[in-house]
TrEMBL record:
Gene3D superfamilies: P-loop containing nucleotide triphosphate hydrolases (3.40.50.300). The lineage of its organism: Bacteria, Pseudomonadati, Pseudomonadota, Betaproteobacteria, Nitrosomonadales. It comes from the Bacteria. Pfam families: ABC_tran. InterPro entries: AAA+_ATPase, ABC_transporter-like_ATP-bd, P-loop_NTPase. Coiled coil: none annotated. This is ABC transporter related. GO terms for molecular function: ATP binding; ATP hydrolysis activity. Residues 10-239 form the ABC transporter domain. Keywords: ATP-binding, Cell membrane, Membrane, Nucleotide-binding, Transport. CDD domains: ABC_DR_subfamily_A. Belongs to the ABC transporter superfamily.
Amino acid sequence: MQKNIPEITLAARNLKRRFGKHQVIQDVSLKLRRGEVLGLLGHNGAGKTTTLQMLTGCLLPDSGGIEVCGIDLLRRPSLAKAYLGYLPETPPLYRELSVNHFLTFAARVRGVKTADVPAALALSRQRCGLEAVGEKIIATLSKGYQQRVGIAQAIIHQPAVIVLDEPTVGLDPAQIRDIRSLIRELGNHSSVILSTHLLGEVESICDRVEIMHHGKLIYGDTSAHMQEYGHVSGFIISLRNPPDISVLAGIAGVSNVEQMTPNRFRVLYAPNNNPSDALLQLCAQQGWQLDQLTPLQATLEDVFVRITDAESAATGEAK
């Protein structure tokens, strides 16, 4: 691990990028903190890959600035990139090499001293679970293991910032679980920014979320707060012998009742005016026979749709 790492490890200011007449990235600004895992969330085509390519110095922005550990990436690219590790969506692997030979090559390219290469190789293999496949040819490995090799080359020089573009795309569920666990562990030693369109990725490994929509960042917060966005107070109730829906709607505090099935209702209420106690008493008194009462919880998918739909409505975009 490099020493004297600042609190803000990656900072982008007002990045813009145009391809032809199309403005792909519009005034993107973000910060990554030391030890943080940041998820860049968005639909396919939202601009995530283009943004990460600029943050890693692989693509020049038309305007804006980028600093890596306080070093200007555009003015001093070699020095700034020494603090970066990058895994593109397609891992940059030489598949005819063995894992050990490829990672040794990656270490030398990233400036690891010859005497330090064996230790760097051993550490990256250990962190990525590659000890048993060091002598195997990369082309013979499963896609999950090839992805591990891709991550290993990104961390071989122990960078302060690790950038991962869609790190679990195309993997099976077991491989996805393993890679997510690895990314979470990487966050204990480095700052990590990853792009994804998978909401489960954000929920399971990210400390903070930035949502990208049509080349703009439209929302940023912790993943926990994101789940509270647009929260609706209510619950789902199941009754074996339900009354008429008008009776439920007339209970003090209830703002709306939706009948989902003959025995199942979605009940909304005003914040700080939960009618569940009164409803439970009426169930016992009137013989409605309560089966289930479950508080409403917005899924990340619900929240993501609300945020992007609100942005589309605000900008007059057609859905």
